[in-house]
Task: structure prediction
Amino acid sequence: MKKQLLLSLLILGVAFAYAQETYETKSDIFYRSEQDKKDAYIDERCRLDLYYPKSVEKFPTIVWFHGGGITGGNKHLPERLMNQEVAIVAVNYRLSPKVKAPAYIEDAAAATAWVFNHIEEFGGDQDKIFVSGHSAGGYLATMVGLDKSYLEKHDIDANRIAGLIPFSGHTITHFTIRGERGIKGTQPIVDEYAPLFHVRKDAPPLLLITGDRELEMLGRYEENAYLMRMMRVVGHQDTRLFEMDGYGHGMTEPAYPLLLNEVDRILDSKGQ
Result:
């Protein structure tokens, strides 16, 4: 029994050491142009953390935008996504009311562009970049992926994104943007700041994940269901909606495996 216990501890120790040796984190990388550093708030907020596997060639990357209603929150590396042979890019972006729309969407696009332009320097693959996030982060992920104009400013085609996997994101115009305009939160708006405004047939694969419709933020499931329906109406062939029964808005932990499964599904469908 003692020998078995010692062997188990040895195996665990080797596994832990291997994980420690083969993953590296680069923190607070500035993702805007150097001239933007003249703005103190851009210099403070426009930074990302990169966690990547050093021993995996051409690894996939998940760009992760934090939630917080576009008025709060900070970048973090989701623990459940670590040690999965994928890179994670955790992004900070400017917040309202210090800035107004579209500044934070532009930040999200700049961070995504940074990944396209630099991930191969760390061993990643430009063709395996997935964009995700929770709540406000899910909204930003969907805006960057559906409204092609934001990435076009960086000479990147949004269709190069391998997959969009937003968690419980607004698909109408975000309530913070409505608040910036003096519009009450119960008044739905669909304009250029709404993912629904940009439905298109040729978008990347889209997996929409929400909490239970009765436990979620009011209307959040229904918004995503409508986006799914309209994407299918325009002929998009790979839009799906997953409702997390029994979970409310904070449904990230049980949803992370769905994100990883979606990455595998898309890469397998491409033979990658």
The two ends are 44 Å apart (CA to CA). Confidence is low (pLDDT under 50) at residues 6-11, 14-19. DSSP finds eight helices and eight strands in the chain. The first helix runs from residue 2 to 22.
